[in-house]
Amino acid sequence: MGRFTADHTGGETMTHTFDLNDPAVIADPHPSYARLRAEAPVYHSLDPDLWIVSRYDDVRTVVRDAQRFSSAVGAIESDPFNPGMTPPKWLSHLLSRLTAVRVLLISDPPDHTILRRKVGRAFTPRRITAWEPRIREISAQLVDAMLTADHPADLVRDLASPLPTAIIAEMLGVPEARNADFKRWSDDLVNGLLTGGSRVAMFRSAIAISWFFFRTARRRRRDPGDDLISLLVAGTGDDALTTPEIVNFCILLLAAGNETTTNLVANAMLAVFDRPDLRQQLRDDPPAAAAVVAETLRFDGPGQGLLRRAVTDISLSDTTIPAGAYVLPLIGAANRDPGHWPDPDEFRLDRPNIADHLAFGSGTHYCIGNALARIEATAAIEEIMRRLPDVAPNGAPVRIASPVLRGLRTLPVEFTRAHTAVAP
């Protein structure tokens, strides 16, 4: 992905290449991140044309400063993460129509402020905490199924993936019979953004799920229940949401919510498997899973970057980013910056500044579903280590082919099936 120039000691200037889509970088991006932080902390990629920011202070500035770095990036003519893949004209037209509707993830104040206030009443700490018993119940049921299954286990397929799908479906009041549709739609929406992913499947599912939520929102306006969609349609006056806004928010919750939790659980368990002392600590004290989740968000978070657009000429690390330029703040690089984190490549549960991680963004765009993702991941890991204490890898995992989504497609495991098959 493009080139950058770096000034070295003695004034020598050299040109390097850095490809975010290189399989070696996707497998382990941190050597490349370290090189970027040291040699070109604000890196100009020529193909595609965007600026990559990697140091903690600069990344935090980009994700927090909504006045100078816009989230309303609009439709991009070429995919910055899949060079050479240009959307067909019908797709670009559809994208332009979709971005005309306010969407939480790609809007700026004041629209973002208004929209977040409207949907925020569905994500209060009290409402999310109230879901914890049900999250733990579903986690236990999924582990029950793993213990009694007659096929090899996979932590992604059997637990990390179905858990958030089931929870979000219940939150939205969707019948359990539609969970398979929900999972397929969610996977298609995410896979369409990956290298080699099907854009046709992505937009077929986008259309299917849009119609599903559109019809559901209309039904809830006539006959409300106690689900999240009913809460969203109940707003009046300044708190009223349009049906397209509700549809877009539900799609965002389904796709982003599922992928975030799935990848967080998978990355955390991979870290546990690589560290026998940590595995033993979790066996002895399963509630330590909360600290494991927090450190995983820093050490190997589910999202490696976000896309922003510079509103005006901006200087970061003595480099000027021109107005209108696309900017990619590398969250994963910032979360391993030795300028902010002592021993950044060590997985530690005792970091006093762990709350500084940027895995959920910062400022006005701080992830509205962060508490839900943490509760889901913590419950899943606790259940795994309590019920499957000898769980271990059973073959090589398969990583997601993406420079910005950090997670696993598969994580095969083995364990003694004589463990408790029914949760206490």
UniProtKB/TrEMBL annotation:
Key words of the record: Heme, Iron, Metal-binding, Monooxygenase, Oxidoreductase
InterPro entries linked to this entry: Cyt_P450, Cyt_P450_B, Cyt_P450_CS, Cyt_P450_sf
GO molecular function list: cholest-4-en-3-one 26-monooxygenase activity; heme binding; iron ion binding; steroid hydroxylase activity
PROSITE patterns: CYTOCHROME_P450
GO annotation terms (biological process): cholesterol catabolic process
UniProt xrefs under Gene3D superfamilies: Cytochrome P450
The protein's required cofactors: heme
Similarity field: Belongs to the cytochrome P450 family.
Name of the protein in its database record: Cytochrome P450
